[in-house]
Please model this.
Amino acid sequence: MSSFSPTPQQTLAIDYTGSMVITACPGSGKTTVIKEKIRNITSNLPEHKGVIAITFTRKASSELESRCKAEAHDTKHSFFGTIDSFCLNEIIIPFLSRVWGGIPTKCKVLKKLAPPYVNFIEKKFIGTPSIININEDSGYKRLYNEGILWMGSFAALALKVLNDSPSARRYIKSRYSHIFIDEYQDSSLAQHQLFLKINELGLCSIAVGDVCQSIYEFRGGDSKLLLELVNNIESFKHFAIDINHRCHPSIVNYASRLLDPNYHLQSTNEIRVYRMRMNGNYQDIATEISKWISECLLNKVDGLEKAAQIAILAKKENSLTLLCSGLDINFRLYVDTPLDESDTDCSDLYKDLLAYKHGTISTAQELINMLYDGMITNNNMQLLLRKKVKIIRENLPNEDLLDKFHEIANILGIEFTEKEDNALIEIISNDILIKQFMPLDDSEVQVMTLHKSKGLEFKIVFHLDLEEWSFPYREFIQNSFTPEYPALQQDLNLHYVGITRAENYCILISAKLRQNSSGKFKTSEESYFLKLPQLDGLYK
Model:
């Protein structure tokens, strides 16, 4: 492992031993700070204790755990995972029976409620329910009595268990010393209340986030909750890690001025943010982009080593699909697949099985551990699953592969329908879609939506969709000539995220022909984002 030399900002955050809020900009090294804190803490913990480390995705969790355990470091009995996994496995499964009776281990976990279960509860919330909804709506208890645990309610349900079960509170206090939550700007109200409850129990509590990277309000995330912690000076000390070590100074200047017209510019002798207003639509433009990328790779521009260090990002999947139809280079397109559109337990299972079949998930045991984040405890079931799972790596016809997927779903008690089966066949029959389930190929340029780029970094970024009506989202209002951007702050944050994925060069592209919602091409004008006066002089 390479030696780590923290900056003064990072050192202050690492060394502080109390409850704290870390606000961290892109490229600030916040994951390294979290890792160093966890390693320092766990070095001094007794064997029976650990820390809670909650991240936004399973992938981020695996990366953090791997970094914390590097060089055989013992993290003791620490938990690494998502908020849903923590709530389910550490609170709901062990202790819900003490509040509501029954046997939680016999329940079925549902990611999405469909009829008849969706009709059990009254929807009085945006995003996910809160503790008030759980307490006032008997439908949640009815779901449990029917053997259903709904993932959307996990944070609120876990909070109820902690409120009502002394045993659950004693367990959390005795098992863990600290709780870390990353990407706090995307937390829901229920997750925020759960974090405060755990802090109240006496665990040292660390929240890490960036209001400027809040892009998931449509899922119920609320960045104001992070600010609430920052302002809670009696319980939390605030540390800002606001130096971007990733991006070229000219990219930092552009991105920062986007959010703050008064940002004090960094000194730089070169501007590496480019704006390109290009003829035609994105299929036409793809030819020119292909030439630029080929030249960059041939000349190894600024240390560029492989195509996978280049990304093409857009707000809309349609723009990416259109662009890819004209690309003359090797690429990988990351978009929602037909299985993502289903958004069911079965579709999640099928995606995990495809990832295992094609090697993104390396072993059968790794796959089994991922299923329901460790809910499977029956050894005989695990043996049977391992046997069935290994078969799908064989060269099977589509019909036989589908049969094997059905067998695994049956073992897990997951219902499958013709919709998921058709989605699966569509994916494995499509050379572009199936690539998403294969290990990364260094020869492929990465093509994805801005949302999917969150947390990633690339040497060169091409940022598309910078036309009026495309990005930011503009609402049509009859007989009005004043533009209305109903999600402007979220779109501004998303634009900021896209720009700050670039380490060395960021190319902002607008097409003179924009594809509208009807699929027709219309003459476009530049995006609102390209008309902001504070950005003058910060691009070529």
In short: The CA atoms of residues 84 and 154 lie 6 Å apart. The first strand starts at residue 20 and ends at 24. The radius of gyration is 24 Å.
